[in-house]
Amino acid sequence: MIYLDYQATTPLAPEAREEMLRWLDGPGGSGFGNPHSIHRMGRRAEAAVEVARERVAALFPAGGSVVFTGSATEALNLALRGSEPGRGGKPVAVSAIEHSAVLDTALDLPGDTTILPVDRDALVDPQVALPEGVGIVSVMQVNNEVGTIQPVAELYERAKAHGALFVCDAVQAAGKVPIAEADLIAISAHKFYGPKGIGALWVRDGIELTPQITGGGQEGGLRSGTLSPALCAGMGVAAQLALQAMEEHATHVAKLWDRALELFPGWAVNGSTDHRYKGNFNIRREGLDVSRLISDVREVMFSAGSACASESNKPSRILSAIGLTTEQARGSVRVGFGRYTTLDELERAAELINCAATQQG
Ligand code: PLP
What we know:
Aspartate Aminotransferase, domain 2, 2 domains, 7-stranded mixed beta sheet, 12 strands, 14% strand, binds pyridoxal-5'-phosphate
């Protein structure tokens, strides 16, 4: 099997797995303690959580703190629903290509939601008009379907000039490109070779949030529930590794990207090729039926769009937002490569995909 769906999830790094096992001890072990217990085992587990928190914090800009959550979806819900302007019914502006964790949450807030358009390159104009009295602007850093990198630094400045909070979904950016400045930033461990079931919200100092989950008051009262030291530790090691190898990773995916361009002649790339994370190769071919292609090419794990939208059989909302026709959107595939992808794998996958696509006529 060839795994080319790195935007949906990434394999767990062996180093992260190793660290996690220490905190998954069974009977007789001393690693399974509750990090909120005050005895020795509890304190050891708590220390592991705090080491992990520091490692995760190193991914972010200075001047804020990390709250562990169960996913990036939960982190984004906390950011949008828990912030003062979100609760208070102020207008919210989100880009047309946000993940549904942002879009659906914004639409569920009491205030009006404005959708900021994107151009054919899947980029938000940094000078885009913001609604009068806007309280929150939420724009992702790297798009999950087409990999485009949004001008978040400029948009953050614009939001600040309007007195609005700037929320950034950095799920596809974390560990791959330096995370940009924002007020509230969400990430997810399983997108950078950490475990599934843990995310984090970075909160700029001075921003007050209302918890969305109440209970035992963990995470400074912001997110009740017993933390899993194993998940935290796995996320911490994954963050540390990703940070150390960021340049090497960028070179690796750029090499794969260049080869992919040669291997897929006759396909058009969706979204900007300049402002882009190069591990996301989203391409289209006229007249293709992608659902058929994916079931024909059983050896390669690739995708028609985001994993969460792929069961609906609707054309991708993101590809429609960049102006593709329904037919073009239905003829698009996302080939996502990463740390463990080899050139050989990419070449074999291209051969299989091209062969099946040609058979469709
Ligand atoms: N935002 C983006 C851009 C994503 O790609 C994803 C996951 O697919 C999410 C948010 C949600 O992350 P999680 O799986 O941690 O809830």
